[in-house]
Each structure stands twice: as structure tokens, then as C-alpha cells.
Amino acid sequence: MTNTGVPVACFSAGDLPLIIDNQKNGFCTEKKDVDGLIQVILKTLSLQENKDCKANCIASVNQYSSSRIIPIILDSYEIIYRKFIESQNNKMDLK
Fold this sequence. Notes:
Elements: E1 8-11, H1 16-19, E2 26-29, H2 34-47, H3 51-64, H4 66-94
């Protein structure tokens, strides 16, 4: 899946099933199912000219792009860091 709207054919591994919505932005098949992968590749080829599919692919890429995700992760780390520092300061106040 790219920001050019190309759907994905993949094995259901890791978090891919959370990202790939069958028939909307690509297809997943069971891990190590080579015949299944061939089938989803063929299905994916049939989606390539579908305007809705292209829009879904682009939306999915934008949703999971590093430019969107990294700030969320950094904000989370900053919250954790601040809570840690606060807890350390509270421990020092108790001494």
C-alpha cells in the first residue's frame, strides 16, 4: 500500500491484519499459505483501478505514516518521562 493508492497482498503476520482491510485497501491471507497469497495477489490486481480502493489505500497510508505516528509516540514518551521524574521527586521529598 502506498500513497499512490496501490492495494496490498500480504500474509496475515504481525500487525498487518490491523492495517489491511480486505477488499478496501488490499487482502491478507493466512501465514505460509502460498496458494492463498496467489489468490489475494489476483484479487489485489482487480482492485487497482477501483477509485474507492485507491482512496482507501491513500487514507491508510496517511493514517499510519511516520509523520503522523512519530509525534504520537514522542508525546507518549514525554508523558512517561514526566511521570517518572515526578515520582522520583516525590520519593526525594519523602526522605
